[in-house]
């Protein structure tokens, strides 16, 4: 049985990631003052312009700060699985763009370090009744040994079946 | 401009009161404040009442007397009570009224606040994926602060221990069981580096203040407490604030607490060195540490030594959260800042009982911080 996947929201990141369009967060850039926003925003909180253009954000950054989530958040709004697995969240600084809050793939605070290199990835944070995995963006520590490897690309998500229509 | 002074304070205990509506707690607090001031409800000319859970807290007139008094509901997140007292004072300062009241009341269900992110203008994926928790912000802010300024886990535990110890001497506090730093460090991590006993919890309670023109205070009390300044500021672009899916890179921008504190000191003509006792928003132990510096009461990083020396203890040179703070009292949002002012008034009157700070304190300071990045400061003096 093939696991189908769907993004938690449209327009949040490139979907489905592919060789021609690898995984990136979709932000926006104010056409008047250049302020970069995520998620994409039509109104600028710096200059109040209401014109912006889409901008794909960097897929690498450094960990600015982090914390752990060791109890299941209240539902709603959280719609992850009933069986709770602790996760981490942090802010990753994308140089020259912005600091973005995201889940981190490493739940152990002892293995996280302010300033460490991070790369964008996807995690299945929830599974629907029909087996569909709901994907959201996350950042993973870049291991020193992995530095020489190719940047994250479509091959990381080869298991991700493009969802053309509602799985049934 | 006329100056406003506080002539009466009333506090309903904070905690859990099954079966007792928030409105009844608020009415009790008002009656205590009126009795303390020696005035009756019909003489109150206007006021402001704050609440998160109660849709129209101004309906409290139904319990106090339908006098036609203009009573306005206010809400500014965790800075709600700061807003209520600021507006009640302003009504006196501008000459609108001679006798006003500030009231706060709330009754939160158990557990962390759960809300729909859309009410905060945040997309729903943020909540669905488990990012919409205010506790994350506090964990992340103190984690970064500890990294930058050399604050230890032991210092976090000492702050929480102090506040529970102070609460033990406060018959109206919620959590009155003292805990040692070791016990606090042994409690489960909720949001690293913050542990269970380093967080305050939502609870229930109410508080009220009666204010009047300074030149009429002698009719009511020999110990008026002057409202020297109030300030409320919201977040600026680039500051690291609660409930922010992202924020711009660049030069660090100061929190609204720094802005509100600076403005409040300037308006009062009082500097941080003059503050004898402070009540700082301690949503968690880390917040109290950060807020010491953001309110100008010390430099970044000095907290490690100050707290080890006991400077913020009741007998120290800068007592902080002498009534147990939010850690000891919990946070009924609408009432929390008025509870802080209630404590400062007792301290400045010299009637705080077992938790009275030594000497003759003259200047008290209160501070609130909450979502989505709003701070309120009130400076009081004898
Ligand atoms: Zn702009």
Describe this structure in words.
The complex is a heterodimer of chains A (168) and B (382). Chain A is mainly β and 168 residues long. In chain A, strand 2 (26-30) and strand 3 form a beta hairpin. Chain A is built from no helices and nine strands. Helices cover 0% and strands 36% of the residues of chain A. Chain A has strands spanning 5-7, 26-30, 36-37, 52-56, 60-69, 87-94, 98-104, 117-127, 133-141. Chain A has a domain at 5-24 and 59-141. In chain B, the strands form two sheets. Chain B has a nine-stranded mixed sheet with strand order 3-2-4-7-1-8-12-11-10. A two-stranded antiparallel ribbon of chain B has the order 5-6. The model of chain B has no long low-confidence stretch (mean pLDDT 96). Chain B has a single domain (4-110, 199-381), classed as Peroxisomal Thiolase, Chain A, domain 1, CATH 3.40.47. The radius of gyration of chain B is 19 Å and the shape is globular. Chain B has helices at 22-37, 61-64, 80-93, 124-128, 134-149, 153-168, 181-185, 256-268, 285-294, 303-309, 325-329, 333-349, and strands spanning 4-15, 46-50, 71-74, 99-107, 189-191, 194-195, 204-213, 225-234, 246-248, 277-279, 363-370, 374-381. Chain B is an alpha/beta fold. Chain B has twelve helices and twelve strands. Classes of the chains: A mainly beta (168), B alpha/beta (382). The interface between A and B is large, with 48 and 39 residues. Strand 7 of chain A pairs antiparallel with strand 9 (246-248) of chain B. Zinc ion (ZN) binds at residues 30, 32-33, 35, 44, 46-47, 49 of chain A.
